[in-house]
Amino acid sequence: MKLRAWFMLALIFALMAFAGHSLISVSGRAEYVAAAGQQSLYRLDVARSRGTIYDCNLAPLTGSTSRWVAAVAPTIEAVGALETATRGRYRERLAAALEDGRPFTLEISRPIEHACIETFSVPRRYGENQLAPHVIGYLDGMGRGASGIELAMDDALSQYKGQLTVYYQVDALGRAIAGAERRTENTMEQTAGGVAVTIDSDIQLLAEKASEELGKGAVVVTEVPNCEIRALVSMPGFRQDEIYEASGDPDSPLLNRAFSAYAPGSVFKLVTAATALEEGSVLKTFDCTGSINAGGLMFRCYDGQPHGTVGLQEALEQSCNGYFISTARAMGGQPVLSMAYELGFGVQQEFGRGLYSAGGNLPNIDSLYNYRALANFSFGQGDLTVTPVQLCGMMNAIASGGEYSSPKLIEGLVAENRELIPQKPVSDEAYTAMSGRTAKLLQQYLIGAAKDGTGTKAAPAGCVSGIKTGTAQTGVYEDGEELLNFWYCGFISDDTGPRYCITVLKEGARDSGSAAKTFRELAEGIAAKKLG
């Protein structure tokens, strides 16, 4: 019996010795030592961000506003201070945080001085009145680019990521140890690097204010001669922090209408006019009776009103359909189609990865042997569709003396020291689309249209402008009346000549009033700010 007892006692001591040796061996390994050390620290991420998107003058378009964030080691005193500062707004959350004991963050309206509270000013990615949301785009739930420049330049913007982190000493239950030292790591300065776009914040703000009554539509402003996009507005707009709500809106605010294709209506008559001037096929006079037969179908001028005897200048100023139908019939469809290609129509444009404008649609040449189809094409109807950006590119070519330059949206990369590193655009076309003589004549005719023609309602005070209007059928009816798309496309000049091109689209409306007002107010604002 004694022998058995001694045996059991020896076995127990052996097991204890083995367990002790194993514990020492395991705890001595580097990875377990590191893991044990990590358990005494609690990492609290206060803020994360990525590279900044700048305008053409390196003014930040993202991260330009800030917010206060409190990093809190929960004690009764600290929670009490927050309760007072927030006027009980987060009472339940603060009570739960105090019970939990782990450090937490809370957005507050002003700094709080307390030993257990650190307050940080951190950038807000998108402001409440964010400029150019359709250009900038937005992020997905993982913080990656989902649309716009955020998507197109995701790699560059992700390269300049930064974060603000506070490390706390905690006990075995993860509760912050009162009075223990804490450590802060802040790399947010790295987010100064990023991307610059061609948008000018001053002009963008003017465009957004001018388009407030536009409803559904788009506004594009380019600078002559290189066709940099200085403003781009799509209406209605959206907030980047309310993407779910915007995605369910029947007015489709997430759609970038400036990059979408529509029938251009009479603005396209400039293409037919340019072709006639280049081909030497200008009709010296045309007797407009208010309608014309093409392929057995009667085409009417606006409201069926006769314009009398007109030449090319008067036909553009009064937007005479009959003149351009007759001109296209005399030339045939191929020259007009070729000029349309030369002016950037029918081709999708890429601004960056995943960021495209629609190509629109040009009819094929075989269809234009039909007089009805050719008639529609000559004044911007039928199968033809174009984007507001493309129309601004066309006007930019006329304004720059016939030299076509593809629209540009990305200026370049920005280093951490905020030095601009220019980048060649993905689409970078530059060539002569028409002679200088043709462009000069069209400029004069457009100035006439702004003074005495269909563009008078949109003509700005204080500067010289040239304007071509367009009205396009949609086939959509409301209360028995067809809704129309209204266009105002033109340029404004200083003493040296045309400086900025403006395109305004009013989608699905009964009258053009708000489109004309948008063009006029925007043109006057740009003239006062940039041409004075």
Report what the structure shows.
With 532 residues, this protein is of the alpha+beta class. The protein folds into two domains: 155 residues, Penicillin-binding protein 2a (Domain 2), CATH 3.90.1310; 318 residues, 3-Layer(aba) Sandwich (Beta-lactamase). The chain is built from 17 helices and 23 strands. Strands 10-9-23-22-21 form a five-stranded antiparallel sheet, sandwiched between helices. It has a four-stranded mixed sheet with strand order 2-8-18-19. It has a three-stranded antiparallel sheet with strand order 1-6-7, with no helix packed on it. The chain is elongated.
Number of domains: 2
> Widest sheet: strand order?
10-9-23-22-21
Shape: elongated
CATH superfamily of the largest domain: DD-peptidase/beta-lactamase superfamily
Helix tally equals 17
Q: What structural class should be given to the helix and strand makeup?
A: alpha+beta
Let me know the average pLDDT.
Answer: 91
- Percent helix among the residues? 25-40%
Residue runs with pLDDT of under 50 for 5 or more positions: 1-38
What is Rg? 33 Å
CATH topology of the largest domain: the name is Beta-lactamase
Biggest β-sheet description:
5 strands, antiparallel
